[in-house]
Amino acid sequence: MNYDQIFDQAIDRLHSEGRYRVFIDILRNKGAYPNARCFAGHNGPKPITVWCSNDYLAMGQHPKVVEAMEEALHDVGAGSGGTRNIGGNTHYHVDLERELADLHGKERALLFTSGYVSNDTTLSTLGKLLPGCVIFSDELNHASMIAGIRNSGCEKRVWRHNDLAHLEELLAAEDENTPKLIAFESVYSMDGDVAPIHAICDLADKYNALTYIDEVHAVGMYGPRGGGISERDKAANRITIIEGTLGKAFGVMGGYIAADEKIVDCIRSYAPGFIFTTSLSPVLVAGVLASVRHLKGSSTERDAQQAAAATLKTMFRDAGLPVMHSTTHIVPLMVGDPVKAKKISDILLAEYGVYVQPINFPTVPRGTERLRFTPGPAHDEAMMRDLTKALVEIWDRLEMRLAA
Length: 404
What we know:
Elements: H1 3-16, E1 26-28, E2 35-38, E3 46-50, H2 63-76, H3 91-104, E4 108-112, H4 115-129, E5 134-138, H5 143-152, E6 155-159, H6 164-172, E7 180-185, E8 187-188, E9 193-194, H7 197-206, E10 210-214, H8 229-232, E11 241-245, E12 255-259, H9 261-270, H10 272-275, H11 282-297, H12 300-318, E13 331-334, H13 338-352, E14 354-355, E15 358-359, E16 370-373, H14 381-397
Parallel strand pairs: 3-14, 5-6, 5-7, 7-10, 10-11
Antiparallel strand pairs: 1-2, 2-3, 4-12, 8-9, 11-12, 13-16, 15-16
């Protein structure tokens, strides 16, 4: 058995398909986001502008967050000391879970080390706790949700994206006594569209199903206190379990679920992905705590981000660039070819100091490769004009079609 040949062939396949991933080597400039320094392929750092960060509101740069993390570091040190049940449960963890439960109007919340882990762990544990459970999954659900459903060992029914008629057809086909769980996202981050939450909950009520919503691209971003689309649409009380991240709009790291006390206690008590892993550093938790508290009382960042996204969409559209329709803060630009998507990204970085990663399969279906822009509160109109001009030039250079 030639193991090296197998590994070489696996990597060669990615190169030949134009979807080999290259991770950029950068450092963000504290207090000057979206400005950063790029170290890849340069003789020393080169100034760049970041256009694809999930730190949507720049809360990772916010003085309150940085100050809270520095204070925690000098108060308790760097690490948590272990798992939550042994040495890694701190007062910061307890406080943050209370804040998150309050954010979503739920009895309890539970912290995880990332949004991926919270999805995978919670869904897989739920499936094992509910005998004979069938999980109904939107076809565009995130890889972490798919992994959790697979690891649950449950039967799975995949419904066409946001297609309520198809979902009801699948629900109606099951025995009424079969435990059912409907798993979906609020904001789908590659297309920027939104789930019809109330309509899904209506079907859940009709067919006696539990509901699980992934709000990772919406928490902090929507609702009067940043509770997500479910808060904005006044639907949080209808959702069984709300899952979110602390590494996007809240700007730090981690994931969580919020639900009633009984469900959270079951996940806390049975989930290996929670029980057997070192808890988040209290330094990180302190930063998130400051971020959540700030965004509960401030819409300034949310409003500025929405305005920036709307402006960039308009500029792209007016320039004839193939910006995809999006009702949210996501600004996807369709390319439709993995090699060209990577080429455009490379030219932007090397010649224009613009950093945006190409999005290829399996993150999106083949033939729908794109660039995904996430303008934030600090991306000004001059930056947007320069970006649009650069993209038009590259589109012309690569002989790609612009809209008339």
